[in-house]
Design goal:
Blueprint (H helix, E strand, L loop, with lengths): L8 E6 L7 H11 L5 E6 L5 H7 L5 E6 L7 H4 L2 E2 L1 H6 L4 E4 L5 E4 L2 H12 L10 E4 L3 H12 L5 E4 L3 H11 L3 E4 L4 H4 L5 E4 L23 E4 L8 H8 L3 E3 L2 H16 L7 H8 L2
Parallel strand pairs: 1-2, 1-3, 4-6, 7-8, 7-10, 8-9, 10-11, 11-12
Antiparallel strand pairs: 3-5, 5-6
Helix pairs in contact: 1-10, 5-6, 5-10
The structure holds NADP nicotinamide-adenine-dinucleotide phosphate.
NADP nicotinamide-adenine-dinucleotide phosphate binds next to helix 5, helix 6 and helix 10.
Length: 279
């Protein structure tokens, strides 16, 4: 009997999942490097997640990304959870190991940081406090990454205050919680300003932040990437700030999974951005 090597399969599990840009990203990389493999969107209802995750490896899947609403639930199912995924309380990258174990990692924080390192080459995270808007899952990854990068203080504001307080409890005294409606005050003298809320995204309400105290030396970045240039970034640019959009974070967070599943470290460059934007 001939032993046919299996073509590796990967995908993104979400609910809904049609909006995900990950299939365009991984599909582009597969074509670019001439690799055998497929990456597909898979809509999975929350109740089906444990069963689907145990079944996919039998079908030839080597791993998956998980997105909303599965990012937290995956930690209850995985056999091995990286320290950073445990700290963040969510995972986005899953590897189905040959020994049958499900390995869960979170690459959002490294993706966030790689995006800033790529585009804001003069940015020094240790130069001053960082102001973070929002305290959801993405904020947890961003705060973990900022602390690791040596940011001296994180000023955090979230509409629902207890969520911000929970982040302070988890990440420690470097996190200082500010009132959501006073966020315009906390951005003064910051080296970094990050929007991690979904405000400003196409179809969501706008982000209203008083930027009068924003210094032109502050690096400003938005996790929202639809539109690519949000009103938040446009206002910061009008004040002389250097800005970085959120698309690069999406591209960089996908790279470690692609490398593990398909055996090739992918390039995150202008061609990758254009491939995802034009998909
Ligand atoms: P999440 O856990 O649902 O958190 C959403 C955040 O937005 C919370 O802080 C929430 O505040 C806030 N928010 C939502 N509606 C609001 C409103 N009307 N007024 C004030 N605050 C509001 O979502 P997430 O996973 O953290 O994702 C947040 C954003 O980041 C999304 O737009 C997502 O697409 C984006 N993201 C981008 C990347 C990337 O690669 N660029 C990666 C991950 C996430 P409350 O706590 O008060 O509800």
């Amino acid at each position: 009997m001939t032993d046919h090597p299996r073509i590796p399969l990967a995908g993104v599990l979400g609910h809904p999942v049609a909006h995900s840009r990950s299939p365009a990203l991984h599909g582009y990389w597969l074509r670019r490097y001439g690799l055998k493999g497929h990456y597909i969107p898979i809509d999975v209802a929350p109740a089906d997640l444990p069963h689907v995750l145990r079944t996919l490896p039998q079908m030839g899947f080597v791993g998956v990304n998980v997105t909303i609403p599965h990012k937290e639930a995956i930690l209850q199912i995985a056999d091995i959870i990286t320290d950073r995924a445990a700290l963040i309380g969510a995972a986005n990258t899953v590897i189905f190991r040959k020994d049958g174990k499900i390995h869960a990692d979170n690459t959002d924080g490294t993706g966030f940081m790689a995006n800033l390192r790529q585009y804001a080459t003069l940015w020094d995270p240790s130069a001053g406090p960082a102001a973070v808007l929002g305290a959801g899952g993405a904020a947890r990854a961003v705060i973990a990454a900022l602390i690791e990068a040596g940011v001296p203080e994180i000023r955090l504001a979230n509409r629902t205050r207890p969520r911000a307080d929970a982040l302070r409890a988890d990440f420690g005294a470097k996190v200082v919680v500010h009132e959501w409606n006073m966020a315009g005050l906390m951005i003064e003298d910051c080296a970094t300003l990050v929007n991690t809320t979904s405000l400003g995204m196409t179809g969501k309400p706008p982000l209203h932040l008083n930027m009068e105290r924003l210094s032109p030396d502050t690096l400003v970045t938005d996790l929202v990437y639809t539109p690519l240039k949000t009103q938040f970034l446009l206002e910061a640019e009008a004040r002389g700030c250097f800005t970085v959009d959120g698309l690069g974070m999406l591209l960089h967070q996908g790279a470690p999974g692609f490398e593990r599943w398909f055996g090739q470290r992918p390039e995150v460059d202008e061609a990758t951005r254009q491939a995802v934007l034009s998909a």
